[in-house]
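TA notes, week 10

Several of you asked for a full example with nothing omitted. So below is the full record: structure tokens for the whole chain, then the designed sequence directly under it. When grading your own attempts, check the secondary structure regions first.
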């Protein structure tokens, strides 16, 4: 029987990533805390809201992807800190704004009141704005990175969160409430709203490292795009099957809002199969490098097997 590239990658002894992820998570908490140690120019309330929203824990999937990709390409962690912090600051800004009454109107995030509930709506809007600005400032000042690398990282991140990425996907999401979408339309929404920033996390790790050749860059972009979609499909599934106390946000919210999701469009089992297919496609893209990217393959498996 022929062995696929994805199967070959999985056959490489794994396990060390399990010990690396907590290290990455502890590191990014420290990096984020330093990034938010800002003096002057803001009220104490705004700075408190920024720290409240950002330093609330979480899986830190996007920074972990930056670190895992960069280390696979031989980069030291200190070279990856700026990109890891920037992508998480962007992610947190998006959550703060998504939770607002004008968007998803959520009361719970990461197991505690959302920013606009803990503070107020105006402060939450400003918190998101300030976190987005801080993300680009952190990238622009990335120590050890060349001017060329900084510009490329800024371009990658901006593209991922603009009209072709997160903001565009969120606009589609808002217009899709109580509407019927085809699978193709749903895929476009997910790839932009969630997938683009996850893909950017992988690419930022590669750009920070500065050692990926053209073929590796293409493969990593493909990997990021496919795990980004797989991640959001699994989120859709968890909204149906998950528990609020594990998710840290209210389960069943998508169904309550009559939002189109992969389970509602395809059914649960077909949605699960689609997530697995995306994961396999992602891993297959990295197969030519086997051992080098085995940790990314391992993380892809985690993303579609997670329960929160």
């Amino acid at each position: 029987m022929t062995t696929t590239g994805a199967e070959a990658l999985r056959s490489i002894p794994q396990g060390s990533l399990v010990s690396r992820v907590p290290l990455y998570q502890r590191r990014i908490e420290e990096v984020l805390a330093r990034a938010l140690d800002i003096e002057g120019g803001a009220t104490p309330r705004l700075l408190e809201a920024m720290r409240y929203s950002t330093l609330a824990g979480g899986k830190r999937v996007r920074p972990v992807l930056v670190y895992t990709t960069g280390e696979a390409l031989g980069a030291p962690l200190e070279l990856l800190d700026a990109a890891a912090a920037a992508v998480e600051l962007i992610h947190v800004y998006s959550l703060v704004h998504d939770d607002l009454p004008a968007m998803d109107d959520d009361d719970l995030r990461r197991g505690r009141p959302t920013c606009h509930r803990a503070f107020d709506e105006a402060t939450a809007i400003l918190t998101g704005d300030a976190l987005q600005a801080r993300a680009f400032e952190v990238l622009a000042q990335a120590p050890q990175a060349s001017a060329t690398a900084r510009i490329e990282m800024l371009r990658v991140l901006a593209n991922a969160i603009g009209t072709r990425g997160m903001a565009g996907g969120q606009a589609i999401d808002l217009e899709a409430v109580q509407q019927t979408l085809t699978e193709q339309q749903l895929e476009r929404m997910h790839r932009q709203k969630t997938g683009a920033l996850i893909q950017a996390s992988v690419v930022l790790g590669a750009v920070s490292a500065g050692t990926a050749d053209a073929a590796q860059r293409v493969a990593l972009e493909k990997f990021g795009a496919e795990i980004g979609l797989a991640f959001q499909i699994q989120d859709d599934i968890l909204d149906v099957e998950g528990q609020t106390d594990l998710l840290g946000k209210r389960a069943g919210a998508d169904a309550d809002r009559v939002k189109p999701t992969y389970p509602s469009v395809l059914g649960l089992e077909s949605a699960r199969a689609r997530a697995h297919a995306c994961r396999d496609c992602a891993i297959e893209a990295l197969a030519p490098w086997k051992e080098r990217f085995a940790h990314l393959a391992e993380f892809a498996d985690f993303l579609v097997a997670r329960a929160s």
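The radius of gyration is 19 Å. Use that as a sanity check on your answer.
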